Amino acid sequence: MTNALAATRTHPALRALLRNSWVLGVWLLLGALLLWYTTLIPVFGPFQITSITKNSLPLVYLAIGQAIIVIAGGIDLSLGALLLLSNVIAARFMEGQPVGVVAAIGLALIVGIALLNALTGYIINLSGVPDIVVTLATSYIWSGLALWILPSPGGGTAPEMRWLFTGSPSGIGGSYWPPLLMMLIPGLLVALWARTSRPGLTLYATGSNRTAAQLAGLNVRRAKILAYAIGGAMAALAGLAMVAITGTGDPRFAVGASATLNSVAAVVLGGIALTGGVGNVFGVVATGVTLIMLNPILIAMGVNSNNAQVIQGVLIAGVMMVGGLSAVLRERRS
Amino acid sequence: MSGETRIVTGRAYRAGKAQTWLAQNPLIALVIVFIALFLVTGAVQPNFLSVNGVRNTLLQAAPLGILAAAQTVLMLTGGIDLSVTMIATGAAYVAANQSPNGAGVAILAGVLVGLLIGSINGVGVAVFRVNPLIMTLAMSGILLGLFTAWTQTVLAGSTQVAPFIKLLGGGAWMGSVPYSVLVWGGVALVVIWLLRRSGWGRLIYAIGDNEIAVRLAGVRVWQVRLSAYMLSGVLAAIAGILLGGRTGAVDLQLAGAFLLPSVAAAVIGGTSIFGGVGGYTGTILGALILSVLNSLLTFLNVGQAIQQMVYGAIVLALAWGYASLTRRS
Amino acid sequence: MSEPNVLLATQGVAKSYGPVIALRSVDMTVRSGEIHALLGANGAGKSTLVKILAGVQSADAGVVAVDGRAVHFRTPADAIDAGIATVFQDPALIPDLSVAQNLRLSRIDMAHFREWLAWFDLAQLDLGAMVRELPLETLRIVDLARAVARNPHVLLLDELTAALTADQAERVFALLREWKGQGKAAVLITHRLAEVMHICDQATILRDGRNVAELATAEVTEHQLVEAMLGASIAPTGNAEHSRAERRFGEVALEVRSLSARHFVHDVSFAVRAGEILGLVALEGQGQDRLFDLLSGNRQPTAGEILVGGQPRHFSSPYDAVRQGVVLVPGDRLIALLPNQSVQHNLATPLFGKLTSWWRIPRDERPRVNRAVEQLSIDTRAASQVRRLSGGNQQKVVLGRWLVSGFRTLLCFDPTRGIDIQTKREIYSLLRELAAQGAAIVLYTSELAEIGLVCDRVLIMHGGRIVDEQDAARATESSLLTAAHGLEAPA
Q1: What is the model's pTM?
Q2: What is the rounded distance in angstroms from the CA atom of residue C287 to the CA atom of residue C292?
């Protein structure tokens, strides 16, 4: 038996590469898409980079939050509604305020919505109702609340806030490094934290095998609450990015619903299994950007927006089919 | 040997007899909730407590109930269909488009659309093992794009359905029993018969409970799954045609609002989202409860924001209540 | 030397699940420097008691005391903190994390852990390996080493040796001796009485949720332990012994020629006839699981062929195998059960395999199911959901599925693992009965004593190959073990 073990031993670096091959793959895919995009349009410069980066921010944040929750064995259909809530509160109360107040509101939103979603996690623990059902119900509650706070699109935010997420005080043009950093720093931090810290590993453990985690003496209930809190914080950040990009608040239910569904798609394409416990958060940053980029690419290719939507759906289903089929074949053959 | 009979009824055992009884017959609890909601709605709007009120509730509940039937069957297998509302909308469009050729052709065409899309979903989930959430979500996006494009081309102008479909969706038999409710009744009988009395129904429950065990028992699981998605597509199409008939005209938002309620109705009715447990009788009650709740919120005239919040809170409370009533330790 | 102090004690511990009483009242005392066996038939309450001591469930009544202090565990973490470390039947390791990450989560000192691993010649184990990629036996040892490295007062070992080789089990015992030498204690839950006599000092015996005896193993025989477990009313009988002379075999039911599966199975050929029970013996991980997968259509071979009734057949899924009458009782009964469905629905599942049977439920379903229930004497008091049945009854349901549908060749993978003596005997005599009625049976078992009791002929597998064939009547445990280790029999 010891011989068998020795035989399967691989170099740690190679193994790390193999285990994260999906993450590497989606980043390479994104790189290839970007390259292709530069050949499709006459001019590719900082303006395009800024535009792609900032427009991806809300989905990337939401996908990071969803990834953490899915890794911990849950799924949150209310993240889009929380995005709406953060978005409308920011738009309504930040308009015309000095930068200090705006920053305070922003931080308060991140903490407050994290707590709100921690409450959702607590309710899931307490009630024994599946995550998908509880968050389906809370998605109605939060979008209703958002609509109540801001009945119609409006409001605004401070130029500094817009600069932070878009690289320009007016939200038009501007430099690309603020949105790029705002995308990569949270993505890297969360991914690193989840993979190396004890609480982060506890999330993986809870999602991988809840019973085993419990028997090993881990607090799986606390892990779930923590995951939902992080998801809430990321949704709040997404709402802030949204108000910074558009300059107004938008309480429409459909905006939240489609954001939620896109976040789930980004997570799955990013190599995170919906069954929990598997995957790397950093991959979803790439897939989030990819999902947003598909539209301008297809339009640059002369495809109209309806067909672009069809192609996006076919691509998602197609990638998953290839993944599913290769898993089946691998299982059969070995 | 004593044998290890572990009849586990958990908390309920220690509680009162009434609660034990309810835990064993959770459908009774749903009936009580329904009656209570109905009476509260009557108190808010006295006109509601009439034959007309009952008829309106049923009329509202019929398309939801049929969509929720699709959701129930799939949830029993451990699946879900997020594309039901787009299938319904698409089927209604095609039915409207074919209406000049007569109602029969129109309905058949609509149902075939449902069958086709359901089959594609089924192949994705059953053969290619795509997670049902993702497969049907992607399908929903594809359908939205396709039908948005087609409304300007091949389906342009087909927003009016045939008179017979209008009658089916909005009319009433002998002026009292809505035809759509009769259709729903027929669907309900078929679905309940299939789930309880057919070999297929046994397999639906079985694969939701433990797919591997079913495979080892010599069943081709993919066939069962595929057929479930096909049925789901057909049911969604029927619901869409009824909806198109009720509103008389078809647009892309026709069924969109029913997606989350169709899942909620099944969940409230006690069907486990993980599969293997539940049934359509509970879902029917779930659909009725949600319809009355909708009426109540409309009568209260509190505005859309409060409506959404109350709706969400009550769905959560009902799911929670059902779970704690039937929980086993 | 002073009186050894009590490390773990229970007094009047009781637990009910709804109206069913699992534990009525259990008093147990575990002293320092003691290996304590916890014995009982299935359903006696052992697993419930383990769950309570490990903090998985809390008792309804009674006291648990650790090192003289009354404790109340709300979670497994509480039990670990109080100094009780449990090794469960299913290792409590996270499959998607590496061994090192698992240890980090449990706050285990790596150096200390490696010292204990060295006991098992596993000091070279690659801690960066994913738990999912390691074999079960290794995981059990990792789990044990982790428990020991927590440095608890009491080790609780639930059927630890079930999946281990004799050599590894011996190392576990050596570790336990060292452990008790340090003044610690261990509680062993096992079905293997030889182990109890070999390693344990004391034995507490549970029956019907009560402790009925505490015996010093040095003063009793195995028979006395069995009597205490079963109660005086059921004396052990040897009726499973069968007379071989009368047996006549029919046609070849299942034959394989040069069957191979990459890395796991190499060039396996054998045939089994109607009416014959063919035993298969192997150490853990010698390809027997894969061989059964190939025979049942669960996986496809890379080379070789399977013949049913003389005709070559290709099984692309279990569907094809079942249609040919080749059916499987898998090693893990949980993968073959529908936990939330009734006994009836579980038993009837194979009836609906063909598309043409999807429509109506056959009229004779009920009588066929009832016949199977009767033939197996399945306890139907909790028949509405099979997850409420005891392990033994669940195993009967798994077997019963094929009695309902009918079959020609039965593949049984360790059908008696973790099952009490009574049920084991029932399963033996059922297998004999089925063979007498003309079924061909291939039986893999990890309990060598079963070979002589049940089988006609036995194949021995090692490193993916069939290395020996013996007459079951003449095979001894030592001849089987010698061959299973890949050694030649002494001339």
Answers
A1: 0.87
A2: 9
